Amino acid sequence: MDPTRQANVMEASSTSLAEPAVTAPAVALRDVRKVHGEGDGAVVALDGISIRFSRGSFTAIMGPSGSGKSTLLHVAAGLDRPTSGTVALGGTELAGLSERRLTILRRERIGFIFQAFNLMPSLTVTQNIGLPLRLDGRRPRRSEVREVAARVGLDQRLRHRPSQLSGGQQQRVAIARALVTRPEVLFADEPTGALDTRTGRGVLALLREVVDADGHTVVMVTHDPAAAAHADRVILLADGRIAGMLHAPSADEVAEQLAHLGS
Protein backbone atom coordinates (compact mmCIF):
# COMPACT_ATOMS: atom_id res chain seq x y z
CA MET A 1 0.00 0.00 0.00
CA ASP A 2 1.42 3.42 -0.93
CA PRO A 3 1.95 6.11 1.78
CA THR A 4 -1.16 8.11 0.81
CA ARG A 5 -3.47 5.13 1.14
CA GLN A 6 -1.75 4.06 4.34
CA ALA A 7 -2.33 7.55 5.76
CA ASN A 8 -6.01 7.34 4.89
CA VAL A 9 -6.36 4.04 6.73
CA MET A 10 -4.51 5.42 9.76
CA GLU A 11 -6.73 8.50 9.77
CA ALA A 12 -9.81 6.24 9.76
CA SER A 13 -8.33 4.35 12.70
CA SER A 14 -7.80 7.43 14.84
CA THR A 15 -11.15 9.14 14.27
CA SER A 16 -13.07 9.82 17.48
CA LEU A 17 -16.57 8.38 17.62
CA ALA A 18 -17.47 10.86 20.34
CA GLU A 19 -17.82 13.78 17.93
CA PRO A 20 -21.13 15.70 17.98
CA ALA A 21 -23.66 14.32 15.51
CA VAL A 22 -23.39 17.47 13.36
CA THR A 23 -19.66 16.99 12.67
CA ALA A 24 -19.39 13.21 13.01
CA PRO A 25 -19.01 11.10 9.85
CA ALA A 26 -22.16 9.47 8.55
CA VAL A 27 -20.88 6.06 9.70
CA ALA A 28 -17.73 5.13 11.62
CA LEU A 29 -16.32 1.72 12.49
CA ARG A 30 -13.46 1.30 14.94
CA ASP A 31 -11.50 -1.93 15.46
CA VAL A 32 -14.49 -3.97 14.28
CA ARG A 33 -14.07 -7.70 14.44
CA LYS A 34 -16.72 -10.23 13.41
CA VAL A 35 -16.30 -13.92 14.07
CA HIS A 36 -18.78 -16.56 12.94
CA GLY A 37 -18.88 -19.78 14.96
CA GLU A 38 -16.71 -20.89 17.85
CA GLY A 39 -13.61 -22.96 18.59
CA ASP A 40 -11.92 -24.78 15.72
CA GLY A 41 -14.84 -23.94 13.42
CA ALA A 42 -14.63 -20.18 13.98
CA VAL A 43 -14.34 -18.02 10.86
CA VAL A 44 -13.04 -14.45 11.09
CA ALA A 45 -15.11 -12.38 8.66
CA LEU A 46 -13.81 -8.96 9.77
CA ASP A 47 -10.44 -8.59 11.45
CA GLY A 48 -9.98 -5.18 13.07
CA ILE A 49 -11.66 -2.87 10.54
CA SER A 50 -11.46 0.88 11.22
CA ILE A 51 -13.03 3.16 8.63
CA ARG A 52 -15.34 6.14 8.38
CA PHE A 53 -17.76 7.19 5.67
CA SER A 54 -18.09 10.96 5.27
CA ARG A 55 -21.46 12.62 4.84
CA GLY A 56 -22.43 13.15 1.23
CA SER A 57 -19.92 10.60 -0.09
CA PHE A 58 -20.21 7.55 -2.36
CA THR A 59 -18.04 4.59 -1.32
CA ALA A 60 -17.72 1.24 -3.07
CA ILE A 61 -16.53 -1.85 -1.20
CA MET A 62 -14.79 -4.56 -3.21
CA GLY A 63 -12.73 -7.68 -2.70
CA PRO A 64 -12.47 -11.38 -3.54
CA SER A 65 -15.19 -13.81 -2.52
CA GLY A 66 -15.06 -14.33 1.23
CA SER A 67 -13.17 -11.08 1.88
CA GLY A 68 -15.87 -9.74 4.22
CA LYS A 69 -17.67 -7.27 1.92
CA SER A 70 -21.25 -8.16 2.80
CA THR A 71 -20.40 -8.65 6.47
CA LEU A 72 -18.92 -5.15 6.59
CA LEU A 73 -22.04 -3.72 4.96
CA HIS A 74 -24.38 -5.55 7.36
CA VAL A 75 -22.40 -4.55 10.46
CA ALA A 76 -22.18 -0.91 9.32
CA ALA A 77 -25.93 -0.84 8.66
CA GLY A 78 -26.79 -2.32 12.05
CA LEU A 79 -28.20 -5.50 10.50
CA ASP A 80 -25.59 -7.53 12.38
CA ARG A 81 -23.64 -6.82 15.54
CA PRO A 82 -19.83 -7.02 15.63
CA THR A 83 -18.09 -9.50 17.91
CA SER A 84 -15.98 -6.60 19.18
CA GLY A 85 -15.26 -2.99 18.27
CA THR A 86 -17.68 -0.09 17.80
CA VAL A 87 -20.04 1.14 15.10
CA ALA A 88 -21.59 4.63 15.15
CA LEU A 89 -24.24 6.19 12.94
CA GLY A 90 -23.61 9.91 13.15
CA GLY A 91 -23.18 10.48 16.88
CA THR A 92 -25.12 7.35 17.90
CA GLU A 93 -23.21 4.30 19.13
CA LEU A 94 -25.08 1.18 18.02
CA ALA A 95 -23.66 -1.17 20.65
CA GLY A 96 -25.74 0.27 23.49
CA LEU A 97 -29.06 0.04 21.66
CA SER A 98 -31.63 -2.66 22.36
CA GLU A 99 -32.91 -4.67 19.40
CA ARG A 100 -36.11 -2.60 19.42
CA ARG A 101 -34.26 0.74 19.38
CA LEU A 102 -31.85 -0.56 16.75
CA THR A 103 -34.81 -1.56 14.56
CA ILE A 104 -36.29 1.93 14.93
CA LEU A 105 -32.95 3.54 14.09
CA ARG A 106 -32.59 1.44 10.93
CA ARG A 107 -36.14 2.24 9.91
CA GLU A 108 -35.78 6.00 10.39
CA ARG A 109 -32.16 6.72 9.50
CA ILE A 110 -30.93 3.98 7.15
CA GLY A 111 -31.99 2.86 3.68
CA PHE A 112 -31.04 -0.53 2.25
CA ILE A 113 -31.05 -1.61 -1.41
CA PHE A 114 -30.78 -5.31 -2.22
CA GLN A 115 -29.68 -7.10 -5.39
CA ALA A 116 -32.95 -9.08 -5.45
CA PHE A 117 -35.11 -5.91 -5.09
CA ASN A 118 -37.23 -7.50 -2.31
CA LEU A 119 -40.44 -5.82 -3.44
CA MET A 120 -43.86 -7.05 -2.29
CA PRO A 121 -45.40 -8.61 -5.43
CA SER A 122 -49.01 -7.97 -4.40
CA LEU A 123 -48.45 -4.24 -3.78
CA THR A 124 -48.39 -1.43 -6.32
CA VAL A 125 -45.41 0.85 -6.85
CA THR A 126 -47.07 3.43 -4.62
CA GLN A 127 -47.64 0.88 -1.85
CA ASN A 128 -44.13 -0.57 -2.09
CA ILE A 129 -42.55 2.88 -1.85
CA GLY A 130 -44.69 3.85 1.14
CA LEU A 131 -44.16 0.58 3.00
CA PRO A 132 -41.31 1.79 5.28
CA LEU A 133 -43.49 4.68 6.45
CA ARG A 134 -46.40 2.35 7.22
CA LEU A 135 -44.07 0.03 9.16
CA ASP A 136 -43.08 3.09 11.18
CA GLY A 137 -46.73 3.80 11.99
CA ARG A 138 -47.05 6.70 9.57
CA ARG A 139 -49.52 7.10 6.74
CA PRO A 140 -47.60 7.96 3.55
CA ARG A 141 -48.68 11.22 2.00
CA ARG A 142 -49.49 10.91 -1.68
CA SER A 143 -47.34 13.94 -2.46
CA GLU A 144 -44.18 12.52 -0.84
CA VAL A 145 -44.58 9.15 -2.56
CA ARG A 146 -45.17 10.84 -5.92
CA GLU A 147 -42.18 13.11 -5.36
CA VAL A 148 -39.74 10.28 -4.66
CA ALA A 149 -41.22 8.22 -7.52
CA ALA A 150 -40.62 11.13 -9.88
CA ARG A 151 -37.07 11.35 -8.51
CA VAL A 152 -36.38 7.85 -9.87
CA GLY A 153 -38.44 8.29 -13.05
CA LEU A 154 -41.43 6.18 -12.06
CA ASP A 155 -44.19 8.73 -11.49
CA GLN A 156 -46.08 7.23 -14.46
CA ARG A 157 -45.92 3.71 -13.00
CA LEU A 158 -47.48 4.24 -9.58
CA ARG A 159 -50.35 1.79 -10.10
CA HIS A 160 -48.22 -0.96 -11.59
CA ARG A 161 -47.16 -4.05 -9.67
CA PRO A 162 -43.59 -5.42 -9.75
CA SER A 163 -44.47 -8.13 -12.30
CA GLN A 164 -45.44 -5.36 -14.74
CA LEU A 165 -42.05 -3.66 -14.49
CA SER A 166 -38.62 -4.36 -15.95
CA GLY A 167 -35.72 -5.31 -13.68
CA GLY A 168 -34.31 -1.80 -13.84
CA GLN A 169 -37.69 -0.30 -12.95
CA GLN A 170 -38.04 -2.68 -10.02
CA GLN A 171 -34.64 -1.62 -8.71
CA ARG A 172 -35.72 2.01 -9.05
CA VAL A 173 -38.77 1.23 -6.92
CA ALA A 174 -36.41 -0.29 -4.35
CA ILE A 175 -34.28 2.87 -4.40
CA ALA A 176 -37.38 5.06 -4.02
CA ARG A 177 -38.51 2.89 -1.09
CA ALA A 178 -35.11 3.40 0.52
CA LEU A 179 -35.23 7.18 -0.08
CA VAL A 180 -38.77 7.86 1.13
CA THR A 181 -37.75 8.01 4.81
CA ARG A 182 -34.99 10.52 3.94
CA PRO A 183 -32.25 8.32 5.43
CA GLU A 184 -28.83 9.52 6.50
CA VAL A 185 -27.13 6.61 4.74
CA LEU A 186 -28.06 4.35 1.84
CA PHE A 187 -26.47 0.90 1.90
CA ALA A 188 -26.56 -1.03 -1.39
CA ASP A 189 -25.64 -4.71 -1.69
CA GLU A 190 -24.77 -5.50 -5.34
CA PRO A 191 -27.57 -3.18 -6.59
CA THR A 192 -26.76 -3.85 -10.25
CA GLY A 193 -25.92 -7.55 -9.92
CA ALA A 194 -29.24 -8.71 -11.41
CA LEU A 195 -29.32 -6.11 -14.18
CA ASP A 196 -27.91 -5.92 -17.68
CA THR A 197 -25.07 -3.49 -18.32
CA ARG A 198 -27.15 -0.64 -19.77
CA THR A 199 -29.82 -0.82 -17.07
CA GLY A 200 -27.15 -1.08 -14.39
CA ARG A 201 -25.52 2.13 -15.61
CA GLY A 202 -28.83 3.92 -15.19
CA VAL A 203 -29.17 2.71 -11.60
CA LEU A 204 -25.59 3.75 -10.81
CA ALA A 205 -26.16 7.17 -12.33
CA LEU A 206 -29.19 7.54 -10.07
CA LEU A 207 -27.15 6.62 -6.98
CA ARG A 208 -24.48 9.11 -8.05
CA GLU A 209 -27.17 11.76 -8.44
CA VAL A 210 -28.66 11.25 -4.96
CA VAL A 211 -25.16 11.84 -3.56
CA ASP A 212 -24.33 14.90 -5.66
CA ALA A 213 -27.75 16.55 -5.74
CA ASP A 214 -29.29 15.48 -2.44
CA GLY A 215 -26.25 15.01 -0.22
CA HIS A 216 -27.03 11.40 0.68
CA THR A 217 -24.26 9.06 1.80
CA VAL A 218 -24.06 5.84 -0.25
CA VAL A 219 -22.07 2.74 0.70
CA MET A 220 -22.19 0.04 -1.98
CA VAL A 221 -20.82 -3.49 -2.21
CA THR A 222 -20.06 -4.50 -5.79
CA HIS A 223 -17.94 -6.98 -7.71
CA ASP A 224 -17.97 -4.84 -10.87
CA PRO A 225 -15.05 -2.43 -11.47
CA ALA A 226 -17.21 -0.33 -13.81
CA ALA A 227 -19.80 0.09 -11.05
CA ALA A 228 -17.11 0.96 -8.50
CA ALA A 229 -15.80 3.68 -10.82
CA HIS A 230 -18.97 5.70 -10.09
CA ALA A 231 -17.85 6.07 -6.46
CA ASP A 232 -15.68 8.75 -4.84
CA ARG A 233 -13.66 6.08 -3.08
CA VAL A 234 -13.15 2.33 -3.35
CA ILE A 235 -12.28 0.27 -0.27
CA LEU A 236 -10.52 -3.01 -1.09
CA LEU A 237 -10.89 -5.88 1.36
CA ALA A 238 -8.92 -9.11 1.65
CA ASP A 239 -9.27 -11.69 4.42
CA GLY A 240 -11.45 -9.36 6.48
CA ARG A 241 -8.96 -6.49 6.45
CA ILE A 242 -8.58 -3.26 4.50
CA ALA A 243 -6.03 -4.03 1.79
CA GLY A 244 -6.17 -0.79 -0.15
CA MET A 245 -8.05 2.38 -0.92
CA LEU A 246 -8.55 4.19 -4.24
CA HIS A 247 -9.92 7.70 -4.76
CA ALA A 248 -12.04 8.46 -7.85
CA PRO A 249 -10.50 5.54 -9.77
CA SER A 250 -11.19 4.41 -13.31
CA ALA A 251 -12.66 0.97 -13.92
CA ASP A 252 -9.26 -0.18 -15.24
CA GLU A 253 -7.49 0.98 -12.06
CA VAL A 254 -10.00 -0.90 -9.91
CA ALA A 255 -9.66 -4.04 -12.01
CA GLU A 256 -5.86 -3.89 -11.75
CA GLN A 257 -5.95 -3.60 -7.95
CA LEU A 258 -8.44 -6.47 -7.69
CA ALA A 259 -6.17 -8.64 -9.83
CA HIS A 260 -3.31 -7.97 -7.40
CA LEU A 261 -5.51 -8.93 -4.46
CA GLY A 262 -6.43 -12.17 -6.18
CA SER A 263 -2.78 -13.07 -6.67
CATH superfamily: P-loop containing nucleotide triphosphate hydrolases
Q: Any idea of the CATH topology?
A: Rossmann fold
Mean pLDDT: 89
The number of helical runs is 9
| Shape by Cα distribution | globular
Strand-helix topology:
Elements: H1 3-14, E1 27-36, E2 43-53, E3 58-62, H2 69-76, E4 84-89, E5 92-93, H3 99-109, E6 110-114, H4 125-135, H5 142-151, H6 167-179, E7 185-189, H7 197-212, E8 217-221, H8 225-228, E9 233-238, E10 241-247, H9 251-262
Parallel strand pairs: 3-8, 3-9, 6-7, 7-8
Antiparallel strand pairs: 1-2, 1-4, 4-5, 9-10
Helix pairs in contact: 4-6, 5-6, 6-7
Task: Characterise this structure.
With 263 residues, the chain is α/β, with parallel strands linked by helices. It has a single domain, classed as P-loop containing nucleotide triphosphate hydrolases (Rossmann fold, 3-Layer(aba) Sandwich), CATH 3.40.50. Helices cover 37% and strands 24% of the residues. It is built from nine helices and ten strands. It has a six-stranded mixed β-sheet with strand order 6-7-8-3-9-10, sandwiched between helices. A four-stranded antiparallel β-sheet has the order 2-1-4-5. Strand 9 and strand 10 form a beta hairpin. The protein is globular. The protein starts with a helix and ends with a helix.
List keywords for this structure.
263 residues; alpha/beta; Rossmann fold; six-stranded mixed beta sheet; four-stranded antiparallel beta sheet; 9 helices; 10 strands; globular
